[in-house]
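Q&A log
Question type: sequence-to-structure
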Amino acid sequence: MFFKIAPDSVIGRSCATQGYPRSRWIPIVMLVWTVWIFATPALYGQHGWLWPTLGSFGIFLALYWHAYFGPKRHVIWCTLGIAALAFALTPINVGGGECYLIYACAFMAFTGGNLREAIERMLLLALLYALESLLLGLPLAFAASAVLVSMAVGLMNIFFRRNQQQDAELRLSHDEVRRLAAAAERERIGRDLHDLLGHTLSLVAVKSELAGRLLERDPVGAGREIAEVERVAREALSQVRSAVTGIRAAGLAAELASARLLLEAAAVSFEYRPPAEALPEQAETTLALVLREAVTNIQRHARATRAEVSVEHERDRVVLRVCDNGRGGIGAHGNGLAGMRERIEGLGGSLVIRSERGCGTELTIALPLPPVQPLRLSKPLRSATPVTAAGALKHA
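Response status: OK
Response body:
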C-alpha cells in the first residue's frame, strides 16, 4: 500500500499525461536539492545541527513520498508538515529550513482549490517564514532570497499544474470529437442503408407476393416475376457491397485531420496541402493508410518538431510526400516501411526514402492513376434543324 500510486496523486496525474516510465523518476530526481540541508551548516560551521536535521529528514522523506504518491486530499497536510519542519529547523539549521520551505511551496501548487488559492497559500507560507527569519535576527537578504526562491519554484509548479489541466481538457475534447464523429458515422450508415434497401426490399416483397398469386393461373408470368425478384436482389447485393466498401475506405482528408490532431498533441508543428482534385477510391484509401503509418512513425520515433505533408497530381500519377525534421537514419524496412512498400508496389507505385541521420526523413510515394476514358457516343449527332418561334407555333 505504501508504494501504491493513487490515481489523483501528483505523480499519478503526471503518469496520465507523460507515461509512467518517464514520470516515475521525478520524485527521485527532485531529491537532489536536499543536499543543501546538510551542506549549508557543514560549510558554515554550525554546531548541534546534525541529529535534529537527521531526525527531521526522516520525517521529511515520509511526507515527501506521500505528497507525491498519496491521494490529492492528503497533499495539503503533507505540505503543512514539511512547512512545520522548515519553521522548526531554521533556528538550528538555516539552510535546511529554507530547503524545506522550498519543497513546501513546490507542493503547495498541487493542493486543492484553484490556482489562485494555491498561489495565495504559497505566498502566505513564504511571508511567515520571512517573518520568522527576521525575528531570529537573520539578515534581510536571507529572508528576501528565501521568499523569492520559494515563490519561483512554486510558480513553476503552478504552470506545470496548469499544463496538466490543459492536457486533460485536450484529451477530453479529443475523446468527445471522436465520439461525435463515430455517432455521426453510425447515423449516416444507418440512413444510407435504409435509403438503399428500403425501396428494394419493398419491391421484392410485392413481386414475390404477385408471383405467388400468379403461380397457378399464369406460371409463365410468375416465372417472370421470380426472375425480376432475382435481378432486383442481385442489384441490391451489389449496391450493399459498394456501400460497405465505401464505409471501410479510409478518406485522405479525414486522415490528414487526424494526423494534425495527433502530431500537434505531441508538440509537432504540422502543415499539409490536400489534393486539389478528387482521387480514385483505391488510390485514396492506399495513400490514407500509408499516411497513417508515416505519421505514427513520426510521433513515436522521429523526435521531430515539424512535419509536412503534400499531395500533388503529376500527369498520370499522384505523389504523396511526408517530411519531418527529426533524427532520421531509419532503415528501408524498419518501422512498418516493409508493409507500406508492399501495399504501394501492389498497385504499381513506388516508395522512395531519404533519411540521413540528423537530417530528418522524407517519404515520397507515387501511385499511377487510371487514364481518363474519353466520352464516346454510340451514334453520331445529326445536324439539328433550327426551330424558330414561328415554326414551333405552326407545328403546335
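Response note: DSSP finds 14 helices and five strands in the chain.
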